[in-house]
Design a protein that fits this description.
- The protein is of the alpha/beta class.
- Among the domains are: 134-287, Type I PLP-dependent aspartate aminotransferase-like (Major domain) (Aspartate Aminotransferase, domain 2, 3-Layer(aba) Sandwich); 323-452, Aspartate Aminotransferase, domain 1.
- It has 19 helices and 15 strands.
- It has a seven-stranded mixed sheet with strand order 4-10-9-8-7-5-6, sandwiched between helices.
- The longest helix is centred in the last third of the chain and has 23 residues, at 323-345.
- The protein is globular, with a radius of gyration of 22 Å.
- The chain starts with a helix and ends in an 8-residue tail after the last helix.
- The structure holds pyridoxal-5'-phosphate (PLP).
- Residues 78, 140-142, 145, 169, 171, 217-219, 244, 246-247, 270, 281 line the site of pyridoxal-5'-phosphate (PLP).
């Protein structure tokens, strides 16, 4: 069935999944002895057809979303395209299995296969990141962080993290989050003149507040994070140092961003951003913290792990060990820097003046357009990003001054510096004419045309 569906531009991914998995398994055989691809090729017999028959409405919605992802330039910094192999593992019968506990210590029978799958994900995570211990059960990045709190803190204890408006994450102690209401959260920001974290400020605050846990990382940080400096501060004040690499995990895996693993007590992450796995979370840590972390995830916070997700992560981690992944990660940064330079040349004001990673934060104040107006106009023009607060934003979080851009997804589909020039030109045109629907429609057509030359994994 694979061939015919491959030719149909409208065939949903589900029809093509099994051939993608078989291809990946063939490619991966050199690394580990994989089962014969032929035995797995029948894993999804007529899966798309059965979805269409059971639930035509949902089937059609998935097909529409697939086309949206195919025909638009996706610049949301936390998004990517998981490979067909990852999609195949995630959409498998593993969703049927319960496996509370850890390998060898489960609360249900029938774990012969699941133990091996989780074991593979763990050993690959340790290999990719050079970690002493890995827990691959967190449902996502936020639960991974909550497990870290449960491992090291009691309610009311002090945690220190970057403030959300400065580029931190909700789960690093922001007030609307459970982490900011059940714990005593102390927040650091960035300097007003440089928009970068000032490690002297972080040290002074840590000395004064004596947090039990110190978080580094965030969701809108365009620059390299100085993990050793955080580690030194944490050691000085007796805090557990947690590096949250949710956004940059793929860059860290490829050696494009310095790794916190040697210096951090704990490293938390999502698995679906630059790492390009399925939705999920993961915690790496020193052996000394392994028991506390494992207990905090299960039975502390979660019940049964999502085995289909664990399998998808195992596949993504195998992909992360390839040469192609290193090339992809390096190109993410080249693309972000090319896009940043092109936007700057067109008069955009970039926070910190540029980027070291996959992410760009632009202040649209000089363009006289609020972030949300620009984001909505760009979406209409086929360029998808999110409005975002900038440091010291005079506007409200729901109507901020900036937009955030990321290059992981466009890089996955093969776009390079030349395409970034074109993207910057389109962005500039739209931002200059945020109410010109005809212009947006014209550009959306041009965007879709460009996208045709850059196949998006999982999108027929
Ligand atoms: C995305 C992100 C998270 C949360 O991940 P979810 O999977 O959305 O729960 C946590 N920390 C950081 C720094 C993030 O960027």
């Amino acid at each position: 069935m694979g061939k015919a569906c491959l030719r149909s531009p409208r065939a949903p991914i589900l029809l093509r999944i099994s051939s993608g998995l078989a291809r990946h398994l063939r490619a991966g055989r050199r690394v580990e002895a994989a089962p014969k691809p032929d035995t797995l090729r029948r894993m999804h017999p007529d899966v798309a057809a059965s979805l269409a028959a059971t639930d035509p409405l949902l089937s059609s919605l998935i097909a529409q979303e697939e086309r949206r992802q195919r025909d638009k330039i996706r610049l949301i910094a936390s998004e990517n395209y998981a490979s067909e192999a990852v999609l195949a593992a995630t959409g498998s019968v593993l969703t049927n299995k319960y496996s509370e506990g850890y390998a060898g210590k489960r609360y249900y029978e029938g774990q012969q296969i699941v133990d091996q799958i989780e074991g593979l994900a763990i050993s690959r995570a340790k290999a990719v990141f050079g970690a002493e211990h890995a827990n691959v059960q967190p449902y996502s990045g936020s639960p991974a962080n909550l497990a870290v709190y449960f491992a090291f803190l009691k309610p009311g204890d002090t945690v220190m993290g970057m403030a959300l408006p400065a580029g931190g994450h909700l789960t690093h102690g922001w007030n609307v989050s459970i982490t900011g209401s059940f714990f005593r959260a102390v927040q650091y920001g960035v300097r007003k003149d440089t928009h970068r974290v000032d490690m002297d400020e972080v040290r002074d605050l840590a000395r004064k507040e004596r947090p039990k846990v110190l978080f580094a990382g965030g969701t809108a940080i365009p620059r390299t994070i100085d993990f050793p400096a955080y580690a030194e501060i944490a050691r000085e004040v007796g805090a557990v140092f947690v590096a949250d690499i949710a956004h940059i995990a793929g860059l860290v895996a490829a050696g494009v961003h310095p790794s916190p693993v040697p210096v951090a007590d704990v490293v938390s992450s999502t698995t679906h951003k630059t790492l390009r796995g399925p939705r999920g979370g993961m915690i790496l840590c020193k052996e000394a913290h392994a028991k506390a972390i494992d207990r905090a995830v299960f039975p502390g916070l979660q019940g049964g792990p999502h085995n289909h997700q664990t399998a998808g992560l195992a596949v993504a981690l195998a992909e992360a060990q390839t040469e192609a992944f290193k090339v992809y990660a390096a190109q993410i940064v080249k693309n972000a820097q090319a896009l940043a330079a092109a936007l700057t040349a067109r008069g955009f004001a970039l926070i910190t003046g540029g980027t070291d990673n996959h992410l760009i934060l632009a202040d649209l104040t000089p363009k006289n357009v609020p972030g949300k107006v620009a984001a909505k106009a760009l979406d209409a023009a086929g360029i998808v990003l999110n409005y975002n607060s900038i440091p010291f934003d005079p506007r409200k979080p729901f109507d901020p001054s900036g937009v955030r851009l990321g290059t992981a997804a466009v890089t996955t589909r093969g776009m390079k510096e030349a395409q970034m020039q074109q993207v910057a030109a389109w962005i500039d045109e739209v931002v200059q004419h945020p109410a010109d629907a005809a212009l947006h429609a014209r550009i959306a057509g041009e965007v879709a045309e460009l996208c045709q030359g850059f196949p998006a994994p999982g999108c027929a």
